[in-house]
Here is the input.
Amino acid sequence: MKKIISATLLLAISIFANGLFAQQVSKEQMKIFQTDNLQDFKKVFKKDDFNKCFAIKENSYDLLALSVKYERKNIFNFLLNNTTDVNRLCNNQSPLMVAARYGKADMAQSLLTKGADKNLKNANGETAKDFSVKYEKANLTSLLK
Here is the structure.
């Protein structure tokens, strides 16, 4: 019973802290992010931003996961080569979990090639494969076997 309470408390603290410490993305930053223009992207996001969690509506994402979600391939490829942690969890999701959720097989393969851990579990015990099953992305489920 103590383990269940401890695990639940740790999960709650983790989720709260993630939301509490996530930075906000300004409208200007988001507008530039959506263009997928690297020159402009580099002007509004600095290297130390690449591994931070940013609040986007009710969720938070690091820039790599956000580039997966919105399929911004130029920014994705740039960040993939300039991000130190491809396994970073923001809002209980890694970039690979985001790729699995949204069916981005090419991006998932690139993440795996760069060292993303397909066996990484979030605080709920879910892996990227679990996300692909949950959101019915069969192409990702087979990739993440």
